[in-house]
Amino acid sequence: MPKQPLLEINELKTHFHTERGRVTAVDGVTFHVNEGEILGVVGESGCGKSVTSQSILRLFDEKRLAQYDGEIKLKGTNLLELSDEKMQSIRGNDIAMIFQDPLSSLNPVFTIGHQIAESILLHQNVSKKEAYEKAVEMLRLTGIPAPEKRVKEYPHELSGGMRQRVMIAIALSCEPQLLIADEPTTALDVTIQAQILDLIVEINKKLNMGVIFITHDLGVVAEICTRVVVMYLGQIVEEANVVDVFENPLHPYTRGLMKSVPQIDGDRSEKLHVIEGTVPALDNIPKGCRFATRCPFADELCVEKVPELREFKNGQKARCWHAEKIAEEDQEREDQYV
Amino acid sequence: MGTVESNVGLTSVKQKLKKEQRQLFFKRLISNKLMVTGGMTILFLMIVTLIGPFLVSHDPYEMVVQDRLQAPSAEHLLGTDEFGRDLLSRIIHGSKVTMGVGFSVAAITSLLGMIIGLYASYYRFLDHILMRICDGLMSIPAILLGIALMAALGPNTKNVIIALSIVFTPHVARVIRSAAIVVREQTYIEAMKAQGASTWRIIWGHMMPNTISPLVVQATFIFADAIITEAALSFLGAGVPAPDPSWGNILYDGKLVIFNAWWMTVFPGIMIVLSVLGLNLLGDGLRDLIDPHTNQGKK
Amino acid sequence: MFNYIIKRILSLIPVLFIVSIAIFLLIHITPGDPASIILGIDASQEQIDELRQQLGLDLPVYEQYIRWILGVFQGDFGTSYFSNEPVTTSIIEHLKPTISLAILAQIITIIIAIPLGIAAANRRGTVADQSIMGVSLLGMSIPSFLLGLFLILFFGVKLGWLPVAGYQPLEAGFFTHLKYLIMPAISLGAIQAALVARMTRTSMLEVLNTNYIKTAQAKGVKNRSIVYKHALRNAFLPILTVIGQTFGILIAGAVVTETIFNIPGIGQLIINSVERRDYAVIQGVVLFVTLSYVFINLVIDLLYGLIDPRVRLDND
């Protein structure tokens, strides 16, 4: 019997009530994360990857704004069935999250020490003094120099990289089983990016913590992830281990994404590939395959009928009518080159 | 070929977007019931102001001593005041004075404020001087400046309009200036200057149209503020002088007989609340229409 | 912080200069000569000339201004035409009731408006929110003198619970003092309460939408704590600004309220002076109130630094 995954998401749907009516931002997403695994979630902005991640913690206002369907199981417990109080005890304790822009994600009027200690005080039965000591320790763990001094500082007194380390310190302060990192390096410059990535990988190994890493940067995915989920317009279009995604992507969208990454060893005179057209609006979803409007392989079938997510070899899954054809073509082309 | 096609695609997308925005605009317009209510109230009061005086049966100045301080009845729908004058006709004639003052002040301040604001935003040296003057005048509380001006000018309706215009013009000028400066900073204005377009054309042809929407919102609020301030001044005896009726000085008369004649306080009071509420609703609604993101307090 | 204070104070100089000129000029656009107004129609030309000289009205306008403004710097706001008393003395005599009234109105404003604004923001879109906002809109549309009249009519005349007018100083006992001031304070504070409630709601909604509130949620912070600790502290700056502005408006609004309730404050002083055409007092009082208004806003600005650490540092 396979081990139970850490997190299991089944047919998750997130609807929003907006001025233009109900919009389904996440439409039937299913995936899982194992212990100690780093899962990459990839897609353009607006594809629903951030909404998915925030839905896991149920961060949207369910009274007015949002409605969830499906299942989100953390070690077998369906989070969508929990009371508000229960959910609060899971947030920051079992599942923690770090966000894209560390400056706006830290409260400007509290010291960073306060913000780390708050999380500890919420979930652990310790004194204030102990919590602050733990905060210093967390800052040290995330590689912030002179942490005793830093705890007393305010977010605006730190650099961007430091702030993201503080966010990570907050997230890790209660040793969560799962860390959701929502584009944690996008707002940082390249050298700092690398340091933050190293930090996340290091902690992932040390604590055997599951990580959902959300990004649009395929380079980062190749570097740290074991499995990848590709999202397009609120749905998963492809899921595979990291090697397969890069070597033989089955969905035309994934292929497009791969081609739009500059290759240092490829023919540099070749133009960078651009996926034609723009992502349709959520209230204007195509009838058939959601990618059909932009897909070079699209035919009548694609425009008319919605493809299912189908499984291929190695557990690779793709939501495309023509996945086999595309795989074959790729194979032929490779054969030609050889 | 490809570019032509994609251009066509782009234009149609743009057109569709525009259409959608327009639909959303009207959806908001209609769904904003409060604003529609406010607008209807003001329209109603305007009609009363314009044709009401011809409909009332009593002369607002006619004193009938034996009829003094009568409660509302069939003969005097809203009762009479301490001189036996019919309250209904005094309120309706008063609306001509009060609404008239409010409207005139809104119109005059809009015009003056627009000129000052536009030229201040165009010429930097003027900007410094004019805006300091505006800041100075705005830091004197409106009612105090009004009282002081009325004390100096002497109490009559024309002077109320002058005094209130002086009080509120800086507010309009500020709003116009900040709207116009956004346009002024745009590259195409620089390009127009380089091509030798006249200052007049740049200011009135290009900067002015962009200030219209904030101006309309601001003018609505000033209309309301002017009604309040006129009523307050007249109530204090520093506004429209007796025996002319204005809602403010009817209230002043009412204060003297508040123990005997509730109707003299309640009815003109209701008129003031209605007109100010109507204008506030209208102004709030207009502002949300123009910029749905700001939902801030009035001032 | 120190530089910031200095900068802020320096920026007031041109404003105050303009204010003083504007107020000073008021006297000089007056039709008719103050001296002949004071002495009445029976006075001889010699008497008038003598008084003009005594009041300094025979000097060139700019010299009159300089004399006046130098006096103001030394705390001398001029001399009443009517009673020959220094204006400063009159102001001090009438200041206490006005301050009492303004402070009470401010307290009422704050304890009503801020909780209501927070409640509305927390329940945005609900009936509770809409009713709070509806009442506040109504509150903003009733001028304070009108609300005062309505209150008098209801609580004073109809129910007879509260005195319809008059004033008792604090020395007469706290509750007596309060009994006379409560209606004026409510009528004065209502508009400001409406304004502060709306501002609180807007400001809270803005903050509740920020990323750091999301972070706090993701940490598992309880809803109460998110609202009252994480959000309110950040939302408080704009609320404080409005409160600062309203305190100035309260003092100015007191002018009208005092007249209705017959409270011997600054407002009554200025209205009496208007009736007596005592321009020296009008000038002095308007300048004094404006100065306090500007000063209060300055203090509020400086308070920012205490609440928001960013202001503290950015301006060092």
UniProtKB/TrEMBL annotation, chain A:
PROSITE patterns: ABC_TRANSPORTER_1, ABC_TRANSPORTER_2
A molecular function (GO) term: ATP binding
Subcellular location: Cell membrane
Signal peptide from the UniProt entry: none
InterPro entries, alphabetized: AAA+_ATPase, ABC_Ni/Peptide_Import, ABC_transporter-like_ATP-bd, ABC_transporter-like_CS, Oligopep_ABC_C, P-loop_NTPase
Residue stretches making up the ABC transporter domain: 7-258
Keywords (A to Z) from UniProt: ATP-binding, Cell membrane, Membrane, Nucleotide-binding, Transport
Keyword ATP-binding belongs to the record: yes
Keyword field contains ATP-binding: yes
Swiss-Prot/TrEMBL GO biological process terms: peptide transport
Pfam families: ABC_tran, oligo_HPY
Origin: domain of life: Bacteria
Entry GO CC: plasma membrane
Major location category of this protein: membrane
Family of this protein: Belongs to the ABC transporter superfamily.
Protein name: Peptide/nickel transport system ATP-binding protein
Organism of derivation: Pseudogracilibacillus auburnensis
TrEMBL record, chain B:
Originating species: Pseudogracilibacillus auburnensis
Family in the record: Belongs to the binding-protein-dependent transport system permease family.
Cellular component annotations (GO), alphabetically ordered: plasma membrane
Alphabetical UniProt keywords: Cell membrane, Membrane, Transmembrane, Transmembrane helix, Transport
Pfam families xrefs: BPD_transp_1 (PF00528), OppC_N (PF12911)
Protein name: Peptide/nickel transport system permease protein
UniProt-listed PANTHER family: D,D-DIPEPTIDE TRANSPORT SYSTEM PERMEASE PROTEIN DDPC-RELATED (PTHR43386:SF1), OLIGOPEPTIDE TRANSPORT SYSTEM PERMEASE PROTEIN APPC (PTHR43386)
Gene3D superfamilies in alphabetical order: MetI-like
Biological process per Gene Ontology, one example term: transmembrane transport
Cellular localization per UniProt: Cell membrane
TM spans (from-to): 34-56, 97-121, 133-154, 160-183, 261-282
Lineage per the UniProt record: Bacteria, Bacillati, Bacillota, Bacilli, Bacillales
Membrane topology: Multi-pass membrane protein
Top-level division of the source organism's lineage: Bacteria
Ranges for domain ABC transmembrane type-1: 99-283
TrEMBL record, chain C:
Main location: membrane
Keyword Cell membrane: yes
Gene Ontology cellular component annotations, sorted alphabetically: plasma membrane
Transmembrane region(s): 9-29, 99-120, 132-157, 177-197, 235-261, 281-307
Domain ABC transmembrane type-1: 95-304
One of the Pfam families matching this protein, by short name: BPD_transp_1_N
Annotated InterPro entries: BPD_transp_1_N, MetI-like, MetI-like_sf
Membrane topology: Multi-pass membrane protein
Family: Belongs to the binding-protein-dependent transport system permease family.
Compartments reported by the entry: Cell membrane
Species, as recorded: Pseudogracilibacillus auburnensis
Keyword Ion transport: no
Keywords assigned: Cell membrane, Membrane, Transmembrane, Transmembrane helix, Transport
GO molecular-function term, one example from the UniProt record: dipeptide transmembrane transporter activity
Name by which UniProt lists this protein: Peptide/nickel transport system permease protein
